[in-house]
Amino acid sequence: MGFLSSSTSSHPHVGGKPAAVPRRARPGVLYMAVEKKAFRQDPLPTIKDFNRRISYHGKRKEFDAALKVKGMIEAAEALDTGIRRNVYTFNAWLDACVRCGRTELTSEAMKEMARLGVKPNIVSFNTILKGYATGQKADLENALALLNEMRRLDVEPDVLSYNTVLNACAEALEMTTAKKLVVEMLKNNVKPDDFTITTLAKGWMTLKNVEELDKLLLLKIKMESGSRTLKCRRPTAYYTLADGYIRSGRPRKAVALIKSLLPHHREDTDGEVFSMLHEIDVAVDVNTFNVLLKALKESAASSLSAQKVLMEMERYDVAPDNITYITLVDLLCTNGDMELGEATIASLAHSGFPTTAAMYNALIKGYARMSPPNMEKVFEIYDAMKEAQDGYSPPDHVTSACVVDALARVGDVGTALKVLQEAEASEDFSARPRKETFNALIKAYRTAVLKVRTIEEDEFDGDEGADEFDREHLAHYFNAARRILIRMRGFHDERVTPDVITYNTAIDICAELGDVPNAEKLYREMIEDKIRPDVKTFNTLIKGCNRARTGLMEAFKWTKEMSEMNVKPDQYTYAGLLSASAESKDVPRALEYFQETLQAKRDEMMRFREEEEESFLQLSVHPSAYVSLMKAFSNLGVNGSKMIFKLRDELQARGYEMGVSGYTAIANCHAQQGDYNAVDATFDEMLRKVKNIPDSLNKRQQSIRLKAYCKGNNLPAAVQLFFAESDPDVAMYNTILMYCCDAKDMDNLVRILRRMEADGVEPDERTGVSVKEMMRSVAKVLKSFDSRFTSLILQAASSSSPPPVEQEAM
Predict the structure, then answer these.
(1) Which residues contact 371 (CB under 8 A, 6 or more apart)?
(2) How far apart are the first and last CA of the chain?
(3) Chunked mean pLDDT (size 10), the chain, 810 residues
């Protein structure tokens, strides 16, 4: 066995270049010497040779090989060969541990250093700190503790130390701690650098905190202004901040920032901060323009504006790269300019510029985003890529993700599975599917659930809506998605293991099914996998509670969890709580959460106050919040009708569609007032404006019409409507029975009870309330009924009590 371990070749190459072999380290010298305990060869390997070898294996993430070399050093020390471990030995070993994910061994190494009297230096601490940027709070606490230990040992943290801990803060989203560290840096005269800015920007963009990104931009400008040289500044921090604005939903601000760096466009930008950039010359590069194109795409800019960016690049003598053209094609396809996108790729290929799979992937995404998705073109491009037709680039792992995502949009699970299997069988490793493809497949299962489900459960009273779809069939989709997730968890490659999108999509399937236990189980697995949930995770869990009608307290449990996970609620969180309050008939809480929804949206509007006016129109509260509040007020009977009509007027004033739930609530209010003409007009309007109304909604409509006739004292029409209904439920029976009793209409009362008996509809407590006042008259007639039915009626009447307010479930 030679010095090069079995895990490395005798002719090692890294990235096509020969890997450096440590000086004086030759095959046979080291291993044989240690194994034979004879260090008499000349020249002997030195501690520097050992250190280099540990570093070499660490950089290649060959932990076992690095560990073996470490063992050899310890053996050499035991043989009294004069070889002794020094701080560089330990630093190399610490780096190997961190790179190989074995950070638990770093504390042992530090103890060993103390035992041997080797004093750690700044590199030792910075290396260990690097291993704590995992996103876990416990590791961040360890990083902060190590920073204090450095000071105790008189090792002053440098900018790299602070940047590494700031990176740990950003990964854990503990940005309050990060701000305190920046203050400490400045207090200790440690000057922030570009990495400080980009690291902090990473954390704030994840939290979508535009105000803090603004402060970072100002800090960066002050750093530049305080420097002696104002020429040829690197643009990295600027375009990272611009990317932060894009990710935070402020793409137009990103456009303004990048244009402020370009002398020819500075007159197009305003604002005090951007004007300060006019005094600084920044050497813009291709990445700067690529971020500008991305910002234009996200701000729904025209295809012409993207083409102007290419002209600007020519003016600044910046050559476009693959990312430039990929983003350009993506922008064109996002705008629906598919022909122009295809023509751009064809032109590149004709001019000899190497086209990539990413460009064709953008075309696939563009055709998938059409309404409806153009699956014919999707597979035309996909098949051409697989067969490498007409210069098409072969598919990569993103290609399969794009195709499966297109199939997910139409709910074609079968074909999506075939595409996944094709990708898995590919001989080209780069085309093997990664987590994006698996996530898209889980999304396909979710779409399939939505397609099979013909009725939204919250549109109906009781369980009648739930009976309209096959729960076992839908559970099959969840089980299939669950198997995909379990399979992903079995991989040891972070490119395939589940992420927050994976779990959010799987939880959403549970939410649509009202399967709260499995949704919670997935959430616990998510935490176990050390995946940080986001606001969408909790919003989906709350939606599941609403689907299952588990009550407001179950929804509250997730808001408490949000607080513990430091996840800030958004307008959709409050809208979910509003819906839960409405289902729980808790009108005060419903009003409270409606106000919270409005406030959350108002806060979002304030963050966009510098955007164009059209942006404000896009920030109105979602109509579902108004409809949920309608449901809450419907529980107040006549007293709630006035507020429901006001909410309707608000929806119409904003140009919103009310949907089936909204129209049903309005029709119910008209029925409460006995205005059956208005009821019919409301349902007629719903038929004109709402698409895909389920047929089973007819029973709910008939029930509302029945109440309208009864409330309007048109009992003959009510009786006629009732007997025309083929399968009335107990709610319809109770409605007509009550008004027959009010009208002292004994003949129709008996007819209805006869039908109730014949239909096998069991009376409930409400039935007892309806007939209680006429029990003396009814009792004689009941003697001719079936004894069991008679017993049920008498029992219901004796145990019933009048309801405080007539309540209508939505």
Answers:
(1) none
(2) 78
(3) 34 35 41 45 76 93 92 87 90 94 91 92 93 86 91 91 93 91 92 93 91 90 67 80 92 90 64 66 90 93 90 91 92 92 90 90 93 93 86 90 94 92 89 92 90 51 44 76 91 89 94 90 92 93 88 87 88 84 77 73 56 43 74 71 79 77 85 87 86 71 87 87 86 84 81 85 76 61 65 63 44
Residue 519 corresponds to which tokens in the numbers above? 């949704």
Residues 689, 372: Cα–Cα separation, whole Å: 20
Helical pair 357-368 and 375-387, crossing angle rounded to 10 deg: 160
Lookup: tokens for 249: 């939903």
At 807, list the tokens. Answer: 């309540």
| CA torsion angle 180 181 183 188 (round to 10) | 140
- The rounded distance, in Å, linking the Cα atoms of 747 and 244 is 74
Q: From the CA atom positions of the chain, what is the Rg in Å?
A: 35
H-assigned helices in 453-586: 471-490, 500-513, 516-528, 535-548, 552-564, 571-583
The answer to whether 50 and 20 have CB atoms below 8 angstroms apart is no
Q: How many helices (H) and strands (E) does the chain have?
A: 42, 2
Residue with tokens 């103890």: 111
Question: How far is 787 from 768, CA to CA, in rounded Å?
Answer: 16
Element (H, E) at 89: helix 87-99
Question: Rounded CA gap, 740 and 403, in Å?
Answer: 61
CA-to-CA dists, residue 585 to 590, 636, 664, 714, 731, angstroms = 8, 9, 17, 30, 19
Q: CB count, 10 Å around CB of 257?
A: 27
- SS3 label, residue 55: helix
Q: Enter the tokens of residue 484.
A: 């995909």
With a CB cutoff of 8 Å and minimum separation 6, the contacts of 738 are: 710, 769, 770
3-state secondary structure 211-233: HHHHHHHHHHHHHHHCCCCCCCE
Other C-beta atoms within 10 Å of 429: how many? 7
Task: Retrieve residue 284's tokens.
Answer: 């813009």
CA atoms within 13 A on the CB side of 235: 22
Residue found by looking up tokens 């001019």 in the block: 351
735-744: long-range pairs with CB below 8 Å, 24+:
735/703, 735/706, 735/707, 735/710, 736/706, 736/710, 737/767, 737/770, 737/771, 738/710, 738/769, 738/770, 739/710, 739/715, 740/715, 741/770, 741/771, 741/773, 741/774, 743/715, 744/774
CA distance 629 to 138: 42
How far apart are alpha carbons 52 and 714 in whole angstroms? 96
For helices 175-187 and 194-206, give the axis angle rounded to 10 degrees. Answer: 160
CA 718 – CA 740 distance, rounded (Å)? 10
Q: Read off the pTM.
A: 0.65
Which DSSP string corresponds to 569-603? --HHHHHHHHHHHHHTT-HHHHHHHHHHHHHHHHH
Beta bridge partners of 18: 13
The answer to whether the beta carbons of residues 569 and 600 sit under 8 Å apart is yes
